Amino acid sequence: MLKPEVSILLPVRQWRPTTEAAIASILAQTMSSLEVLLIGQQDVAQLAARLPRDSRIRAVARRQPGIVGALNTGLAEARGQYIARMDDDDIAYPERLAVQLAHLRGPTATQLCSCRIRFIDSRGHTDTIGHGNRAYGRWLNSLTDDADIRAARHIESPLPHPTLMAHRDVWQRIGPYRDIDGPEDYDLVLRATLLGIRLGKPAPVLLDWREHSGRLTYADPRYRRTAFAHCRARAACDSRSGLGLSAGRAVWLCGTGRNARDWYDALTQEGVCVRGFVDLHRHGPQRSKRGKPVISYEQLPGQRQDALVIGAVAGPAARTALLDYFDQQQWRCDQEFILGG
């Protein structure tokens, strides 16, 4: 069989009603030169018995346990020139692979491609999706070019994992998924940014991302809030980030809520000096958080010196207000400040 143009990595923990629909959506792609790697556990024979008869499907057993083991097995088994991701509860639109492939080969010079998404529920409906996920979806879909994606990388993963696609050489450059106490997908995207890999999304919505209580995001402790914070802090402290934290640069944290406290704990564990917190509602001269002073935004320019300012506030309105403040100070993203989740 000729080598396919695209290999799709699709781990399957257990067969469920959505699995067949996910596979069918890949087989219905407008481009036909593809292979679907169904990566199971030790149940490959039973998995294969459920699959439609199509020579483009291959069922393989993961070589190591867990989602990381399954994904790395897929990377090792993939024969395509390009490698894409897919989950077994999502729906790819028919033109997804063709549009992403054209984007990777187009004038934007994108190397790691994602796409815009639409949230659906367990039954495939959109009207039950809550306000939080609707806002999250709008945020994800607003980030399409490399500059905006990079500016948002410390807030949350700006590239939905099941939408990723890149040339196999790019996957090899990033390296395998890492089995860490944290989100392996976010870790991979952050490592790509540290390598200077160019990120992007084409314009159309190309995938229905299914929201349900059984997602690993809710069930696996590796996806807890503090694990995300440590993932962000590790990337920010990497010498390749250009932020100077690895060389002893100090930090001021904007905010005093849970996001700011998580950043403080993670940065302190990395050996970074956090000088204090900045808050709109500073009450009293002795107010402190984590044993560090809380100052006002009026005081910050005079006390910042060369410290990195991290905007650790929640919600788009608060981030917009912070960006306005940073603009007034003529501070630049990735130089004087970063936005953090």
Question: How would you characterize this protein structure?
Answer:
The chain is α/β, with parallel strands linked by helices and 341 residues long. It is built from 13 helices and 16 strands. The strands form three sheets. Strands 3-2-1-4-8-6-9 form a seven-stranded mixed sheet, with helices on both faces. It has a six-stranded mixed sheet with strand order 13-14-12-11-15-16, sandwiched between helices. The protein has a three-stranded mixed sheet with strand order 5-10-7. Strand 11, helix 11 and strand 12 form a beta-alpha-beta unit. Helix 8 runs parallel beside helix 10 and helix 10 packs across helix 11. The protein is elongated, with a radius of gyration of 21 Å.
For the biggest β-sheet, the strand order reads 3-2-1-4-8-6-9
- Percent helix: 25-40%
- Residue share in β-strands: 15-25%
Query: So how many helices?
Result: 13
Structural class assignment? alpha/beta
Average pLDDT across residues? 93
Pick out the low-confidence regions.
none
Order of helices and strands: EHEHEHEEHEEHHEHHEEHHEHEEEHEHE
DSSP strand count: 16
- Termini separation comes to 46 Å
| Largest sheet data | 7 strands, mixed
Gross morphology is elongated
* Rg calculated over all Cα atoms: 21 Å
